[in-house]
Amino acid sequence: MNRTRLLMIGALALALGAVVSLIVFKKLQGGGSPNVEPGTDVIVAADDIQVGARIGEHDIRTVKYPASALPAGVYSKRSQVLGLGVILPISKGEFILPSKLAPENAGSGLPSLIPRGMRAVSVRVNEVVSVAGFVGPGTRVDVLLTGTPNGSAESQTTTVLQNVAVIASGHTLERNASGEAQNTPVITLLASPEDAERLTLASMEGKIQLSLRNPLDTHSDPVDAANARGLYKGGTPAPAQSPVHVRSVKTHKTELPPPTPSVLSVEVYKGDKRTVVPLPEQSGEDPK
């Protein structure tokens, strides 16, 4: 009798627990559903996409994200991004945004990196000119020219361009897979048409040197040209001149005798005898 009653109590407890659990589950599910935002299809990178690449089917995938968590301009259809060139690196799982893609029909590779109104100009460099290979895509440089101006026999160095963007190194639009610098004989710079002319002329007139800048330093400062004379200015001090002592000399004033009054005279010759006869002084009165 007691055993049967215990079994009945246990079964009733299990049934009651199951009913309570079901009710709690239904309540929680029903109460949380209004706060769950429906997902929106967006296009993200299926793998790392390098600069200059053209986006293909294997580069992207579609995922669902809450609409409130999406950045502005995100693409929702694969057809919107297929075939476009990449102008900024895109990491795996990152949203595909218009700011990282070239305009439609702009192609891929280096031409897609050139903004409207700008030009890409390549200069030949070596390990020294390219700052030991650290001048690569994404860096900014100043362009220095060393040469001999017309009519001058002295070499001088002047800053031709400042804060110029580097968009390619050799045939590479980015650093290698390990992020190390690459030594290449050609650096491609992004410049306006006027600056492109100056850069081309500078490469013909003398020796080009690149000066690496901090990417956060975008201020252009006026820089005077440097020459050999300015380098040695103040290097070797001029010999000191011995002091000059000025000695005062006393001058003695010599009084001159008063002038002798002039006396008129007449020379009278009698034969070989000469006689000087003084004339009387003339006054304002007529002689009587």
Structure description:
The structure is a single chain. The protein is α+β, with helices and mostly antiparallel strands. Among the domains are: 39-109, Type Iii Antifreeze Protein Isoform Hplc 12 (Alpha-Beta Complex), CATH 3.90.1210; 114-217 and 224-231, no CATH class. The chain has helices spanning 2-32, 193-205, 228-231; strands at 39-45, 60-66, 119-124, 140-147, 156-169, 186-191, 207-212, 226-227, 265-270, 273-278. Strands 3, 4, 5, 6, 7 and 8 form a 6-stranded antiparallel sheet that branches. The protein has a two-stranded antiparallel sheet with strand order 1-2. The protein is elongated, with a radius of gyration of 50 Å. 16% of the residues are buried.
| Discrete helix count | 3
Overall 3D geometry? elongated
Distance between the termini: 200 Å
Please indicate the percent range of residues in DSSP E strands (runs of 2 or more): 15-25%
Rg, Cα atoms, Å: 50 Å
Question: What is the succession of H and E elements?
Answer: HEEEEEEHEEHEE
Largest sheet: 6 strands, antiparallel
Structural class: alpha+beta
Mean pLDDT: 75
User: Low-confidence stretches at least 5 residues in length (pLDDT < 50)?
Assistant: 235-249, 283-288
Helical content stands at 10-25%
